[in-house]
Each structure stands twice: as structure tokens, then as C-alpha cells.
Design brief:
With 686 residues, the chain is of the alpha/beta class. 54% of the residues lie in helices and 10% in strands. The chain contains 26 helices and 13 strands.
């Protein structure tokens, strides 16, 4: 029988190729994802640094590096409040250029490198999803962006701390003496970068000791770690003896503790240590996350992350071995150490850049929780960041003591310099406080100082660009109540005759003298040029400065004139008025004593405007007698300021009738009545 070959069995059709899985690609290429995040952060930092001018501290740091040799830079650094490493490295960097942006580029590059190493550390401790989450927060945190774009020590410190954390973790995991020795070296370099590096080194030593006790690494690794701790402790002691001991109780430390960082130091007897620690920990998170609400939310996330680690559910994602409870202690320990420093009144703990290194630990604690929240997937993490990060950055609140970016635009300082060169005559005296002095030297003098005298009299003088620049060494920012007396003391020190105009310059650090004098006394000087709330030039003739004596005399004289008018009007008036309005700074008990004959209600202008702002109407106060100081010293709506013209007028639906002028022409009296349909009362222009 003839056989036939069997029919081939038909093969099932091959499945259609699966579409590419974006999540799988992200997981397998997460390092490229991290680099893309770093690149975006780098661009943002460039955009922040390019249009802004250097502040006073940045210029001081730059001037410290402007010495001819390394030895000279080191000597200059020892008399500054900061350790020398940053200055030595910046001295090298300036070989590439001296522009504002070039100086800031050093910090931008150091900070970006630190972010990469922080990512590597988080990846080693937790998982790559947790590391991506932490990198997103650290890269786009407004506080860190600001710290990493300034000519300060914080970006270099961040780099060294991140390097230390990575080397320490890798050293214990691999039981490598070399890595542990390298970690000790970078910790020592952090000590010589910034004072907060000392407190980090203390936390580093405590947590390393716990790791040694629990993990029991080989003896060579233990001995290497111990030797590293001795090395770091020696550097801390050397730094204290050569630099910090001299600063203790000095002018800089006193200024810091009594001014804008006052709340960051514990004050026994005013509150308990527990309340201080709780309040300032909230302040630290508020600073790191640049918003009160974000700070509280992320502090809750930090606590949740620590609880997660203590529950032994750490290292999600790849099942890495690791002592999660020790990791939790490691993340909490720096906060405890920094807080103890504040309790000892040795270092500030709160909402300032001095604690920016704590951001590494604050962010690290939330990473495991975030990884679990997104189910260890990168795509939802990136999508969430694309929505939340722009909102976060737009809503960021500038920390106290720092200027918003809109007030740091370079064209503002350029406008101030151009105004000085155009309007201030050659040889004139330009007066500033200690914090605005570097701004003048850098931007007006371009750091080219020809003459400088001693500071024995509490002043420093240097000549440049054809001007005599004098700065007070007693005040970092002129307080309005002391400014006039310091101005007079300066005039006597340099023999300035009465009537000679001195130009008081505020160049971007703190509220300007012009604004401070106006807010405190209502004083304005003719020819004042206000460029921003922090930049202004005020021409003040010697003898017209707001000393305590002439301010008291001025207030008493004007007050007496107005009271004399009130008494004369009371004796002649046959009718009573609904209200008496009185200049705010001149309203006292003696004023109220003359009011019963005129009205049962006496209001200062600030009280009147406050009531109108709460929904009150001016009609309810009319008819009124308005006592007016000629050349008013307080802020008023425009239709009220017309009273300074000493004439009858109608404005805003109200009739202002000039009733009397004081004999010395210092005060005016108006009758204010309705004159037609009233218009809304605008807020006073400020």
C-alpha cells in the first residue's frame, strides 16, 4: 500500500509584537532618568543665576579670595566667620573668570554634582524608585536652588556631605577600609567648609559608631573608621582654636543671635527646650520646602517615613539587605545634633540656609513612603512631579532675611550705580552701613580701592571712582532710631561742615534707609532716589539728620502748633463736630484733652484708615475737623494729600475747606463735609 506523507500541522500565528512598555524602559534606564532631572535642575539654576546681582555676603566671600597667593587667602579666611576650604577652591576657580555668573557657576556645578551623589546614596540605601523621588525633591526645592546658585559655602558643603554618606554606606556594605577612610576625609573637608559641617561630623560619628556596634565589621575596617573619627575630631579642635574661639561673643555672633536669627537660638527662661525643639523643627521643614503648608505636610511625611523604617519595611523595591532601624536613627540624628547646638547657643536651628544640609536627611526619610505610594513605578512619579513641581516653585515663600528674586535683578543695582555717577558730585561722601559696604565696593568701585583708613573710630573709609565712601562698622543694618546719631558722629569724625550733603546708599541688603526712616518717622528728603524697597540713595545735609533730639523737637513743635489751633477753634466754635482727625505720630493724651470742646471722638489717620479698610464709611465721621501737619509725614490716600496745598478743594465726593493755618505755618486745619456722591476710599499709596 502506497504511503502518503503526513500533512504538516498548521502553526498558530505568531503573536503581534507588544508595544514598547514605557515603565519597563524607565526602570531599566533609571540612571538616564536621573540625569535628565539633573539637567532640568541645572538649567533652572542657570536661569536663576544669570540675571541676579551678588549680595553682600557673596561679595565678601569673593573679596576674601582676591588675594595674590594661597597663603594670603588662607590668612584672610581665618579672620572671616567661615572655614577656609571654600575660599581656597574659589581662588582657583577665579582663574577662569571673575564675572558674577562665573563666580556662581562654581556653586552650581558643585551642587549639581552633590545631587548626583545624593541620588547614588539613596539608590544604595533604598531603591532606584525611592532615589528618583528624592532626587526630584532635592533638585527642584527652591531653598536648595537658592543655596546652590550663590557664592557661598552651601553647595560645596552639600557635595561633601553627600559624598560622605555614599562612601560611608558603601564602606560598611563592602567592609572596605579604603571607602571608610575616604568617608572620614570628606567629612573632615566638610568641617573645613562651613560651621554646619562640624555638627554634621558629630552626627556622622554617632551614627557610624552605632553602625560599628551593630554590624560588627572586620577589625581593619573598624580601626580605619576609628582613625577617621580621631582625624575629624582633630580638625574640629584645630578649627575652633584658630578661628571659632575668636568669634565667640564677638560682633558677628551677637548680631546673628540678636537680629534675624534670634528665634533660631534657645533662650532659657523664655520657653522650654521641648517647645523650642518642636517649633524650630517645624521651621526647618518650612525653610526646606519653602512654604508653611508644604513644610508641615512634609514633616508629617518625614515622621511617616521614619515609622516605616522602624517597622522594618525599609528598602522596598529590590530586597536589599540593610539595617533599616539604623537608617531611621541616622536620618533623625542630624536634626537632634543641630537642635542641641541651638540649645547650647552655639549654632542656629530653624528656617535659614544655615541648616540647608538637613534637607538631605529630611528628603531621604520620605523616599521609601513615596516609593510605596507609587507602587515602585517611575512613570506615575514623573507625572506627579510634572504637575506638582511647577505649583510648588510658583508658591514658594522667600525665607526671612533673604530677598525675593525680583528684587535681585542686576538692572536694579546697575540703575543705582548709574544714578550715583550721574547725580553725585565728585568728592562727595557716600555713607553706608556694614552690610551695604561690599555692594558699593564691588559695583561702584569695581573692587578697586585706592585709600582705606583705620577703623578705630568705628568707621571705615575708602576712596574710589572719585568719591569718599564711609561705612559704619557698628551697624550691620542702620536701625532708624540710631541712624541719625551715627550719621552725626560720622560727620564729626570726618569734619563735615553743617549743610554739606551726604549721600546715604542702600544697595540691596535689607530694607533701605529711605524706607526705614519713612516707616518710622515719616521722613522724606528731597532728591531721594528709590529704586526698590532695598535699593535707594538718600541725600541728607549735615545737621538735618533725624537725630533723637531734633526728632523730639520737631514732634513737640508741630504738636504744640496743632493743639494751639484746636484751643482757638474750640473757643470760637459754636457747633460740635462728629470727629476730629489728627496726625498719627502727634496724637497723645494732651491732644485728647482739648477734644471734648470739639468732638467726643478723636481718631488718628491710621485709625481712620484701618476702620475704613474694615468696611466703615467716611460719611459716618462727617462733618469732621482734620488737623494736618504741613508736609505730611505719613501715608495717605491721594485725595487726602491734596490738603498739603493749603487750599479749598473738592475730591472723592468730599469738600475740604481750609479753616486755619498755624502762625508758624507748620499745621493746617480743614473742615471736611460731604459734597456729592461719595466714591470708594482707596488705600494709601505706599
Amino acid at each position: 500500500m502506497k504511503s502518503h506523507p503526513a500533512s504538516p500541522v498548521p502553526r498558530p500565528p505568531s503573536p503581534a509584537p507588544r508595544p514598547p512598555n514605557l515603565e519597563a524602559w524607565l526602570q531599566s534606564n533609571y540612571h538616564w532618568v536621573a540625569l535628565a532631572i539633573l539637567a532640568a535642575g541645572f538649567v533652572i539654576k542657570i536661569l536663576v543665576a544669570l540675571p541676579t546681582f551678588l549680595n553682600s555676603d557673596e561679595i565678601d566671600n569673593y573679596m576674601t579670595t582676591g588675594q595674590p597667593t594661597f597663603a594670603a587667602v588662607f590668612r584672610e579666611a581665618l579672620i572671616s566667620p567661615h572655614p577656609p576650604l571654600f575660599f581656597l577652591l574659589l581662588h582657583l576657580w577665579t582663574l577662569l573668570g571673575h564675572s558674577d555668573f562665573m563666580l556662581r557657576l562654581f556653586s552650581i556645578l558643585a551642587g549639581t554634582a552633590g545631587l548626583w551623589l545624593a541620588f547614588r546614596w539613596l539608590d544604595l540605601v533604598f531603591s532606584h524608585v525611592a532615589a528618583i523621588a528624592g532626587l526630584l525633591v532635592l533638585t527642584f526645592a527652591p531653598s536648595l536652588t537658592a543655596a546652590m546658585t550663590e557664592v557661598r559655602q552651601y553647595a560645596l558643603l552639600f557635595l561633601l556631605v553627600a559624598t560622605t554618606l555614599l562612601l560611608l554606606e558603601a564602606g560598611f556594605r563592602r567592609q572596605s577600609s579604603r571607602l571608610l577612610a575616604a568617608a572620614a576625609l570628606t567629612s573632615g573637608l566638610a568641617v573645613y567648609t562651613h560651621a554646619s559641617g562640624v555638627w554634621f561630623a558629630i552626627a556622622f560619628g554617632i551614627c557610624g559608631l552605632m553602625r560599628v556596634i551593630v554590624a560588627r565589621p572586620p577589625r581593619p575596617a573598624v580601626m580605619t573608621w576609628l582613625a577617621g573619627q580621631v582625624f575629624t575630631a582633630g580638625l574640629c579642635l584645630l578649627l575652633y582654636l584658630t578661628q571659632f574661639a575668636r568669634l565667640r561673643g564677638g560682633q558677628i555672633e551677637t548680631f546673628v543671635q540678636e537680629s534675624w536669627l534670634r528665634n533660631s537660638y534657645f533662650r532659657p527662661g523664655q520657653e522650654s527646650a521641648f517647645l523650642f525643639a518642636a517649633r524650630q523643627t517645624v521651621a526647618v521643614f518650612r525653610y526646606i520646602y519653602s512654604h508653611p503648608i508644604s513644610g508641615i505636610v512634609m514633616l508629617a511625611g518625614f515622621v511617616a517615613g521614619i515609622v516605616l523604617l522602624l517597622s522594618a519595611r525599609a528598602n522596598p523595591g529590590r530586597g536589599k539587605p540593610g539595617p533599616s532601624r539604623l537608617t531611621a536613627l541616622w536620618l533623625v540624628c542630624p536634626f537632634v545634633v543641630f537642635c542641641l547646638g541651638a540649645l547650647a547657643k552655639s549654632y542656629p536651628y530653624g528656617d535659614s540656609r544655615h541648616d540647608v544640609v538637613l534637607a538631605l536627611f529630611a528628603v531621604a526619610a520620605i523616599c521609601p513612603a513615596v516609593a510605596l505610594l507609587v507602587r515602585r513605578r517611575i512613570l506615575p512619579l514623573l507625572l506627579g512631579a510634572a504637575v506638582l513641581v511647577p505649583i510648588w516653585m510658583a508658591k514658594a515663600v522667600t525665607p526671612a532675611g533673604q530677598s525675593p528674586l525680583r528684587e535681585q535683578r542686576r538692572e536694579l543695582i546697575q540703575s543705582a550705580v548709574e544714578h550715583i555717577r550721574r547725580t553725585v558730585p565728585p568728592g562727595a561722601v557716600i555713607f553706608s552701613d556694614n552690610l551695604n559696604r561690599p555692594m558699593l565696593r564691588h559695583y561702584l568701585c569695581q573692587s578697586m580701592v585706592t585709600i582705606m583708613d583705620d577703623t578705630s573710630g568705628g568707621f571705615r573709609r575708602f576712596d574710589c571712582a572719585g568719591y569718599r565712601l564711609v561705612s559704619s562698622m557698628r551697624f550691620f543694618n542702620f536701625p532708624p532710631d540710631s541712624f541719625g546719631d551715627e550719621f552725626a558722629r560720622m560727620a564729626r569724625r570726618y569734619g563735615l561742615p553743617e549743610g554739606e550733603t551726604v549721600y546715604v546708599a542702600s544697595m540691596g541688603w535689607g530694607t533701605s534707609v529711605a524706607l526705614r526712616l519713612f516707616r518710622r518717622y515719616g521722613l522724606e528728603y528731597a532728591g531721594t532716589r528709590v529704586i526698590s524697597a532695598r535699593i535707594a540713595l538718600v541725600p541728607i545735609p549735615v545737621g538735618s539728620e533725624p537725630s533723637s533730639a531734633n526728632l523730639q523737637y520737631w514732634q513737640a513743635t508741630v504738636g504744640n502748633s496743632l493743639r494751639a489751633m484746636a484751643l482757638s477753634v474750640r473757643s470760637l466754635a459754636g457747633a460740635r463736630f462728629s470727629t476730629v482727625f489728627w496726625p498719627t505720630l502727634l496724637l497723645d493724651d494732651s491732644t485728647r484733652d482739648v477734644a471734648p470742646g470739639l468732638s467726643d471722638r478723636v481718631l488718628s489717620y491710621s485709625e481712620l484708615y484701618a476702620d475704613l479698610g474694615r468696611g466703615g464709611t467716611l460719611e459716618s465721621y462727617l462733618p469732621a475737623l482734620a488737623f494736618w501737619q504741613l508736609g505730611t509725614r505719613e501715608v495717605h490716600p491721594e485725595f487726602m494729600r491734596y490738603m498739603d496745598d493749603a487750599a479749598n478743594y473738592i475730591s472723592g465726593g468730599y469738600r475740604f475747606t481750609l479753616a486755619q493755618v498755624s502762625q508758624d505755618s507748620l499745621g493746617l486745619l480743614y473742615l471736611v463735609e460731604p459734597a456729592g456722591p461719595a466714591q470708594p476710599i482707596p488705600a494709601p499709596d505706599r
